[in-house]
Amino acid sequence: MCAAVLYPARVSSLSDAELDALIAEAVVDCYDEYEQLSGLFAMIEGDLALPFETEVLGVPVVVRKVDLRLSGIVAICHRARLRQAIGILDLPLPDPAPDGAQWIEAYRWWAAAQ
Fold first, then answer.
1. Which domain of life does this protein belong to (predicted)?
2. 52-56/72-79 β-pairing
3. 11 in a domain, yes or no?
4. Cβ atoms of 45 and 64 closer than 8 Å
5. Neighbours of 72 (CB within 10 A)
């Protein structure tokens, strides 16, 4: 029997107002949804402490960088010589979460409102 993996919606105790303030900071000069996504990506890329270890489907991986794709923001996960892009909204974060993970939480909050 397989144990369920839970992906927490929040990685910290930020309030809705604090998440809204983070989003406002990231998208201050953005005119459309793609520019807002780019603004959030810039904050994640600049503030998320990399590399960090986590598990994807029970397999240990190292997140070494983040990237912006047409599908959204992805984490580039490494295991030995293998590499896989995983949507950062689907990425389970370790406990404790790496520094800067509040920007992933803000991105989740923003994406849920789109």
1. Bacteria
2. unpaired
3. no
4. no
5. 16
- Using one digit for the tens of pLDDT, what is the confidence trace for 19-76? 999 999 999 999 999 999 999 999 999 999 999 999 998 999 999 999 999 889 999 9
Range of the domain at 71: 16-113
- Residue 5 located in a structural domain: no
**Residue 63, SS3 per DSSP:** strand
Q: Cβ–Cβ contacts within 10 Å for residue 60, how many?
A: 10
Q: How many domains does the chain have?
A: 1
pLDDT higher than threshold 90 for residue 83: yes
